[in-house]
Amino acid sequence: MSSFPEEVERLRVAAQEAMAEAAGDLSMCAIAKSGRPMPALKYHEGRAAMLGSIERALGAGAVDDERLRGIEERWQRYERLAASSSDWEAYLQGGLDVLAELNFEA
Questions:
Q1: Nearest-CA neighbor of 71 among 8, 3, 7?
Q2: Chain centroid to CA 45
Q3: Number of neighbouring beta carbons within 10 Å of residue 64
Q4: pTM exceeding 0.70
Protein backbone atom coordinates (compact mmCIF):
# COMPACT_ATOMS: atom_id res chain seq x y z
CA MET A 1 0.00 0.00 0.00
CA SER A 2 1.41 3.37 -0.97
CA SER A 3 1.62 6.42 1.25
CA PHE A 4 -0.48 9.50 0.58
CA PRO A 5 2.42 11.41 -1.04
CA GLU A 6 3.22 8.40 -3.24
CA GLU A 7 -0.43 8.14 -4.32
CA VAL A 8 -0.52 11.85 -5.17
CA GLU A 9 2.66 11.46 -7.25
CA ARG A 10 1.27 8.37 -9.02
CA LEU A 11 -1.94 10.18 -9.90
CA ARG A 12 -0.04 13.29 -11.07
CA VAL A 13 2.15 11.25 -13.41
CA ALA A 14 -0.93 9.47 -14.77
CA ALA A 15 -2.67 12.81 -15.35
CA GLN A 16 0.33 14.19 -17.22
CA GLU A 17 0.51 11.07 -19.37
CA ALA A 18 -3.21 11.36 -20.15
CA MET A 19 -2.69 15.03 -21.09
CA ALA A 20 0.12 14.09 -23.48
CA GLU A 21 -2.04 11.41 -25.06
CA ALA A 22 -4.99 13.79 -25.46
CA ALA A 23 -2.77 16.49 -26.97
CA GLY A 24 -1.23 14.13 -29.51
CA ASP A 25 1.43 15.90 -31.54
CA LEU A 26 0.26 19.39 -30.56
CA SER A 27 1.81 21.58 -27.89
CA MET A 28 -0.37 23.19 -25.25
CA CYS A 29 0.38 26.57 -26.87
CA ALA A 30 -0.82 25.35 -30.29
CA ILE A 31 -3.96 23.92 -28.73
CA ALA A 32 -4.71 27.17 -26.89
CA LYS A 33 -4.15 29.21 -30.07
CA SER A 34 -6.45 26.95 -32.09
CA GLY A 35 -9.47 28.04 -30.06
CA ARG A 36 -10.95 24.55 -30.35
CA PRO A 37 -12.59 23.17 -27.22
CA MET A 38 -10.58 20.28 -25.78
CA PRO A 39 -12.51 19.13 -22.69
CA ALA A 40 -10.74 15.75 -22.49
CA LEU A 41 -7.37 17.49 -22.35
CA LYS A 42 -8.60 20.14 -19.92
CA TYR A 43 -10.01 17.44 -17.62
CA HIS A 44 -6.57 15.88 -17.24
CA GLU A 45 -4.95 19.31 -16.96
CA GLY A 46 -7.32 20.06 -14.06
CA ARG A 47 -6.34 16.78 -12.41
CA ALA A 48 -2.64 17.58 -12.80
CA ALA A 49 -3.15 21.11 -11.47
CA MET A 50 -5.07 19.89 -8.40
CA LEU A 51 -2.41 17.28 -7.70
CA GLY A 52 0.27 19.97 -8.03
CA SER A 53 -1.60 22.05 -5.44
CA ILE A 54 -1.68 19.06 -3.11
CA GLU A 55 2.03 18.36 -3.68
CA ARG A 56 2.86 21.97 -2.81
CA ALA A 57 0.83 21.61 0.38
CA LEU A 58 2.72 18.40 1.16
CA GLY A 59 5.97 20.31 0.80
CA ALA A 60 4.74 22.72 3.45
CA GLY A 61 4.01 19.90 5.89
CA ALA A 62 1.48 17.17 6.47
CA VAL A 63 -1.72 17.47 4.46
CA ASP A 64 -4.80 17.17 6.60
CA ASP A 65 -8.49 17.70 5.93
CA GLU A 66 -8.19 21.40 6.75
CA ARG A 67 -5.52 21.97 4.08
CA LEU A 68 -7.42 19.92 1.51
CA ARG A 69 -10.58 21.87 2.33
CA GLY A 70 -8.67 25.11 1.70
CA ILE A 71 -7.47 23.82 -1.66
CA GLU A 72 -10.99 22.76 -2.57
CA GLU A 73 -12.38 26.16 -1.57
CA ARG A 74 -9.86 27.89 -3.82
CA TRP A 75 -10.95 25.61 -6.67
CA GLN A 76 -14.59 26.51 -6.14
CA ARG A 77 -13.85 29.92 -7.68
CA TYR A 78 -13.67 28.10 -11.02
CA GLU A 79 -17.38 27.25 -10.82
CA ARG A 80 -18.28 30.60 -12.36
CA LEU A 81 -15.84 29.93 -15.20
CA ALA A 82 -17.10 26.35 -15.59
CA ALA A 83 -20.45 27.73 -16.65
CA SER A 84 -18.75 29.63 -19.47
CA SER A 85 -17.23 26.73 -21.42
CA SER A 86 -16.90 22.99 -21.62
CA ASP A 87 -13.13 23.36 -21.19
CA TRP A 88 -13.48 25.14 -17.83
CA GLU A 89 -16.16 22.69 -16.73
CA ALA A 90 -13.87 19.76 -17.54
CA TYR A 91 -10.88 21.44 -15.83
CA LEU A 92 -12.84 21.98 -12.61
CA GLN A 93 -14.30 18.49 -12.67
CA GLY A 94 -10.88 16.93 -13.15
CA GLY A 95 -9.56 18.68 -10.08
CA LEU A 96 -12.55 17.86 -7.93
CA ASP A 97 -12.48 14.22 -9.08
CA VAL A 98 -8.97 13.96 -7.68
CA LEU A 99 -10.23 14.92 -4.23
CA ALA A 100 -12.94 12.26 -4.50
CA GLU A 101 -10.35 9.65 -5.55
CA LEU A 102 -8.23 10.57 -2.55
CA ASN A 103 -11.31 10.00 -0.37
CA PHE A 104 -11.53 13.62 0.71
CA GLU A 105 -14.96 14.96 1.61
CA ALA A 106 -15.41 18.55 2.69
A1: 8
A2: 6
A3: 9
A4: yes
**Residue segments in the chain with a per-residue pLDDT below the cut of 70:** 1, 60-62, 104-106
- Give residue 25's pLDDT: 84
Q: Could you tell me which of 58, 77, 75 has the C-alpha nearest to residue 67?
A: 58
> CB 67: neighbour CB atoms within 10 A?
16
CA 69 vs. chain centroid, Å, equals 15
CA distance 33 to 25: 15
Residue 77's pLDDT is what? 82
| Alpha-carbon distances, residue 24 vs 13, 27, 87 (angstroms) | 17, 8, 17
